[in-house]
Amino acid sequence: MIKINGFDNDGVISIGIYPGPHDVIITGRSFEEEKETIEFMHNKGIFNKVYFNPVKFIEKTRKSSGEHKVNIINELKNNGVIIDIFFEDDPIQKEVIEKGCPWVKIVHIVHNLVEKENVRRDAAGVELG
Fold first, then answer.
1. Neighbours of 35 (CB within 10 A)
2. Does residue 127 sit within a domain?
3. What is the SS3 assignment for 89?
4. Pairing with 126, which of 6, 9, 57, 103 sits 20 to 30 Å away (CA)?
């Protein structure tokens, strides 16, 4: 088994908490937001594997984003990769991950720097209308 860490994007990476070279990013962002998200990360020098939420932007919720993270964490575990620590700022998603993946240690990043609701941002992290 390989142990790595997992990182949320908005509210974690977006505020300057960056993954190590072998860590993964499991974002609640929709697959529809992939282009601007990858551009944002590359601009920050981050080239890690990113797992996007498979639901449309308009359909995602904070709970479904947490469920997506649980699904990916479990899929990785089934493939011999353990997420040891996960960095998350959303208390709703944190709770979903704790219930679905009780072995994962969660670092809850508490702040009010970004909106927790469904907000689309460009590659610079600026909220899109």
1. 10
2. no
3. coil
4. 6
Is 116:5 a contact under the CB 8 Å cutoff? Answer: no
Distance of alpha carbon 14 from alpha carbon 30, whole angstroms:
16
Domain for residue 116, yes or no?
no
Number of domains in the chain: 1
Whether pTM > 0.70 for this model: the answer is yes
* Strand pairing report for 81-88 and 2-7: parallel
Through-space distance between the first and last CA atoms of the chain, rounded to whole angstroms: 43
pLDDT given at position 110 = 82
| Tokens read off for 30 | 């929709």
> Which tokens belong to 49?
């594997």
Length of the chain: 129
